[in-house]
C-alpha cells in the first residue's frame, strides 16, 4: 500500500478527518514553498498537494491562477518543481500528491514527467482536465510506476459516471464541491454529499472534498460528508497576505476544528 | 467525422474537468438529434437566408485577376454577411441550438470582437441573455466592437488573468460555463475546444464550401486549382475546405499569421511552428515552450492571434489534406491595401492573410486555372489599426 493510501486509511480507521493542503510550487519562490510544506505538516496537514504552475489552469479560480502566473514569472519550471519534491523528501515523509494539467505532463514528456516525480518521491497524481474518457493517456504509465491517478467526481456527475470513476479510484477520490472553479467560498456541501453517498455504494476508498473550503466552518461542514477536506486558495491567500505564519495559523485552526468534531 | 471520443485521428478529444463532461455529453446528444431534425434545419436555413444574407456571392475579381495577369481569381464574399463576417453562421446555429436545449443564457469569448458581436446580435434576436469575455488588451484595441456588443444588450466582461488576451478570455468563458452550466450554453467562436464543439462549429460553417461547390458549377469553372483561406482557430477555413476534403486535385491552402516573421518569437503560426498539446480541452498543434506552457501569440490581426488551432486542421495537416503556410503582417497589409485599391473592397486583416498568399501562387497559376479565396470578413473594424500602422495615406 502506498504512503498515501496508508495514511488516509489509518485516519479513517481511527475516526479522524484528513486535512489536505494545496500549495503552488514556486509561489512566491521555491524556498518559501519548501518552508511552507514543512510548516503545514507540522501543523497537522496529512497530505500536501503540490500544484505545478500552468499558464492556462482551466479549473482554477483567481487566487491559484494568480499564484501560477507569478510563479512562472519568477522562473518556475517542471524541473525545479521536481527538485522541490527531492528537497522535501530530505526531511519529510508527508504524502505528496502532484496536481497538474495535461499539457504540463505532455510538454515535459509524459513518461519522463511521471517517472521523474515518482523518483523524487511523490505518492499520487491529480490531473483535473483528464476525465474518465481520456484517462488512458496516463493510466498505463501510472500503473507501471505504481502511482495512484486520483479520480475526480463533481456535483454534475451522473450516477453511471460516479460508479465508473469510483470503481477505478486509487489513493482517494477527489470530490469537487461545486460546479465552479477553485476558491469560490462554499458552505453547503449537501449536493456533493449526495454524490459521495452514491460513490460509497461502490467503493471503500477515502473521499476528500475540495474547492471552496476556506475556513474552519467550511472544513467542518464538508467533513460531515467526507473523510478528508482539501484547502488551497485560502492557504495561498494567507501566504500572500501574512506569510508562512498566516498559512500556519489557518491550518492549525482547521486542524483543531476537525479534531474537536471527531472526538 | 470524429470518433466517439471526438478524435480526428490523434487530435481533438475532451480534456476538461469532470464538472463539464456531463454538459458536453448532453450537448452532443441534443445536437445529434437536431442535426437530422427537419424543423431545426428549416429554422436554421430561414435565419441564414433572411437574416444573415446567405447565400453569399462567389465574386469574379476581374481587376485582381488582371492585376496578376494569370488565372482567374474568385472571392467568396462572407464579408457581405450581417455583422460583417462568417462568424454569424455559427452564432445563429448555436443560438438556435441553445434555444432548443432550453438554455436562457449564452456565454462566449471574443478576440477581435467579431464573434462577440455575432453572439450579441443573435442574443438580441432570440431574446437570450448574453455575456462575452474579452481580454483587457483587446477591449482597448477594439473599442468599436465593445460598443457594438453593449449597444446590442450584451455584458462585456474584461479579462485580466494570465496575459489578458483571447486565450485567457476563452479560459474564463469556459470557467463561467462550468459554473453556470445548468442554464447557460457556451458558444465557442471557432472549430476549437472540446468535442463536440469542433464538429458543431464545422457543421455550421461548412455551408461556405457547400455553396462554393454549387457556384462553381453555375459559373462553369472547370480547372479549380487552389482554395485559400486564413487560419486562426480555423473556422472559415474549415467551412471552406470541408466539402472539398476528398477532392485531391484541388490544392487547399490554410494561411496562418506569421506576424513579424516565423523565425521571430512574434507570430501566431501554430501549425507551422507549434507542436501538439492540450489547450482549451483539445489535443492539437499549439505554441508552447518545453514545459508545455502556452506561448502568447502575436499577429496584427486580432482574429488570428490564438496560440492553438482546431484539431481537425491538425488532422488535415498530418494527413496532407490541406497545406498550411504563413504570411507576415507586412504582406497582409499590402494585400489589404491592394484589394481596396483594385477591387473597391476593404477586407478584414484576417482575410488579407489569405489574399496575401496570391503573391506566392499566382505566378505558378496557368491562364485557364482558377483560384478561390475565402473573404471571411470585411475590414471596417480594422481601420483604426490600419491608420496606426499605415499612417495617413
From TrEMBL, chain A:
Catalytic activity: (1S,2R)-1-C-(indol-3-yl)glycerol 3-phosphate + L-serine = D-glyceraldehyde 3-phosphate + L-tryptophan + H2O
Domain of life (superkingdom): Bacteria
Keyword Amino-acid biosynthesis in record: yes
Pfam families recorded: Trp_syntA (PF00290)
Lineage of the species this protein comes from: Bacteria, Bacillati, Bacillota, Negativicutes, Selenomonadales
Pathway: Amino-acid biosynthesis; L-tryptophan biosynthesis; L-tryptophan from chorismate: step 5/5
GO (cellular component) term, any one: cytosol
MF GO annotations: tryptophan synthase activity
Protein name per Swiss-Prot or TrEMBL: Tryptophan synthase alpha chain
Matches recorded under PROSITE patterns: TRP_SYNTHASE_ALPHA
Catalytic residue list: 49 (proton acceptor), 60 (proton acceptor)
EC numbers: 4.2.1.20
Automatic annotation (TrEMBL), chain B:
Modified-residue entries (N6-(pyridoxal phosphate)lysine), positions: 87
Every Tryptophan synthase beta chain-like PALP domain range: 52-377
Name recorded for this polypeptide: Tryptophan synthase beta chain
UniProt family annotation: Belongs to the TrpB family.
CC annotations in GO: cytoplasm
Cofactor(s) needed by this chain: pyridoxal 5'-phosphate
Keyword Iron-sulfur assigned: no
InterPro entries (alphabetical): Trp_synth_b_CS (IPR006653), Trp_synth_beta (IPR006654), Trp_synth_beta/beta-like (IPR023026), TrpB-like_PALP (IPR001926), TrpB-like_PALP_sf (IPR036052)
A family per Pfam: PALP
Lineage summary: Bacteria, Bacillati, Bacillota, Negativicutes, Selenomonadales
Known EC number: 4.2.1.20
A Gene Ontology molecular function term of the record: tryptophan synthase activity
Subunit structure comment from the entry: Tetramer of two alpha and two beta chains.
The protein's annotated pathway: Amino-acid biosynthesis; L-tryptophan biosynthesis; L-tryptophan from chorismate: step 5/5
Functional summary from the UniProt entry: The beta subunit is responsible for the synthesis of L-tryptophan from indole and L-serine.
Keyword terms: Amino-acid biosynthesis, Aromatic amino acid biosynthesis, Lyase, Pyridoxal phosphate, Tryptophan biosynthesis
Enzymatic reactions: (1S,2R)-1-C-(indol-3-yl)glycerol 3-phosphate + L-serine = D-glyceraldehyde 3-phosphate + L-tryptophan + H2O
Amino acid at each position: 500500500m502506498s504512503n498515501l493510501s496508508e495514511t488516509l486509511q489509518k485516519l479513517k480507521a481511527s475516526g479522524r478527518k484528513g486535512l489536505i493542503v494545496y500549495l503552488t510550487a514556486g509561489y512566491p519562490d521555491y524556498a518559501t514553498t519548501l518552508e511552507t510544506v514543512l510548516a503545514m505538516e507540522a501543523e497537522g496537514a496529512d497530505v500536501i498537494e503540490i500544484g505545478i504552475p500552468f499558464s492556462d489552469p482551466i479549473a482554477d479560480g483567481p487566487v491559484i491562477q494568480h499564484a501560477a502566473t507569478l510563479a512562472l514569472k519568477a522562473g518556475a519550471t517542471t524541473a525545479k518543481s521536481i527538485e522541490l519534491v527531492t528537497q522535501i523528501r530530505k526531511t519529510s515523509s508527508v504524502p505528496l500528491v502532484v496536481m497538474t494539467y495535461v499539457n504540463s505532463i505532455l510538454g515535459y514528456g509524459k513518461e519522463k514527467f511521471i517517472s521523474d516525480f515518482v523518483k523524487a518521491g511523490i505518492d499520487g497524481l491529480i490531473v483535473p482536465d483528464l476525465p474518465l474518457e481520456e484517462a488512458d493517456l496516463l493510466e498505463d504509465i501510472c500503473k507501471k510506476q505504481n502511482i495512484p491517478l486520483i479520480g475526480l467526481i463533481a456535483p454534475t456527475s451522473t450516477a453511471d459516471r460516479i460508479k465508473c470513476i469510483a470503481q477505478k479510484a486509487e489513493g482517494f477520490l477527489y470530490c469537487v464541491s461545486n460546479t465552479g472553479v477553485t476558491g469560490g467560498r462554499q458552505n453547503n456541501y449537501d449536493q456533493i454529499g449526495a454524490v459521495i453517498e452514491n460513490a460509497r455504494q461502490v467503493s471503500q476508498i477515502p473521499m476528500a472534498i475540495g474547492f471552496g473550503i476556506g475556513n474552519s466552518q467550511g472544513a467542518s461542514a464538508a467533513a460531515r460528508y467526507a473523510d478528508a477536506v482539501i484547502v488551497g486558495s485560502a492557504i495561498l491567500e494567507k501566504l500572500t497576505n501574512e506569510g508562512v505564519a498566516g498559512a500556519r495559523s489557518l491550518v492549525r485552526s482547521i486542524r483543531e476544528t476537525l479534531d474537536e468534531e471527531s472526538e | 467525422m470524429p470518433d466517439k471520443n471526438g478524435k480526428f485521428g490523434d487530435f481533438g478529444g475532451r480534456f476538461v474537468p469532470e464538472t463539464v463532461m456531463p454538459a458536453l455529453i448532453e450537448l452532443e446528444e441534443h445536437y445529434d438529434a437536431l442535426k437530422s431534425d427537419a424543423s431545426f434545419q428549416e429554422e436554421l436555413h430561414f435565419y441564414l437566408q433572411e437574416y444573415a444574407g446567405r447565400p453569399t456571392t462567389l465574386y469574379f475579381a476581374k481587376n485582381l485577376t488582371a492585376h496578376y495577369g494569370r488565372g482567374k481569381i474568385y472571392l467568396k464574399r462572407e464579408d457581405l454577411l450581417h455583422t460583417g463576417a462568417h462568424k454569424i453562421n455559427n452564432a445563429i446555429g448555436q443560438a438556435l441550438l441553445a434555444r432548443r436545449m432550453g438554455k436562457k443564457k449564452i456565454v462566449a469569448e471574443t478576440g477581435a470582437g467579431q464573434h462577440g458581436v455575432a453572439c450579441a446580435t443573435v442574443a438580441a434576436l432570440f431574446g437570450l441573455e448574453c455575456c462575452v469575455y474579452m481580454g483587457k488588451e483587446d477591449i482597448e484595441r477594439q473599442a468599436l466592437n465593445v460598443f457594438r456588443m453593449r449597444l446590442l444588450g450584451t455584458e462585456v466582461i474584461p479579462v485580466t488573468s494570465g496575459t489578458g488576451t483571447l486565450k485567457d478570455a476563452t479560459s474564463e468563458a469556459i470557467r463561467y460555463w462550468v459554473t453556470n452550466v445548468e442554464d447557460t450554453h457556451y458558444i465557442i467562436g471557432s472549430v476549437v475546444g472540446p468535442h463536440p464543439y469542433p464538429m458543431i462549429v464545422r457543421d455550421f460553417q461548412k455551408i461556405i464550401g457547400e455553396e462554393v461547390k454549387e457556384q462553381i458549377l453555375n459559373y462553369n469553372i472547370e480547372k479549380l486549382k487552389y482554395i485559400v483561406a486564413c487560419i486562426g482557430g480555423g473556422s472559415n477555413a474549415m467551412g471552406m475546405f470541408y466539402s472539398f476534403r476528398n477532392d485531391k486535385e484541388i490544392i487547399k491552402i490554410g494561411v496562418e499569421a506569421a506576424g513579424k516573421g516565423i523565425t521571430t518569437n512574434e507570430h501566431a503560426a501554430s501549425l507551422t511552428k507549434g507542436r501538439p498539446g492540450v489547450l482549451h480541452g483539445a489535443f492539437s498543434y499549439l505554441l508552447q515552450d518545453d514545459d508545455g506552457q502556452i506561448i502568447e501569440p502575436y499577429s496584427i490581426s486580432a482574429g488570428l492571434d490564438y496560440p492553438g488551432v482546431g484539431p481537425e486542421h491538425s488532422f488535415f495537416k498530418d494527413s496532407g489534406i490541406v497545406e498550411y503556410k504563413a504570411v507576415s503582417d507586412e504582406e497582409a497589409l499590402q494585400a489589404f491595401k491592394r484589394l481596396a485599391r483594385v477591387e473597391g473592397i476593404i477586407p478584414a486583416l484576417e482575410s488579407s492573410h489569405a489574399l496575401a498568399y496570391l503573391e506566392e501562387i499566382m505566378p505558378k497559376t496557368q491562364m485557364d486555372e482558377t483560384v478561390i479565396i475565402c473573404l471571411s470578413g470585411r475590414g471596417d473594424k480594422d481601420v483604426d489599426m490600419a491608420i496606426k500602422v499605415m499612417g495617413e495615406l
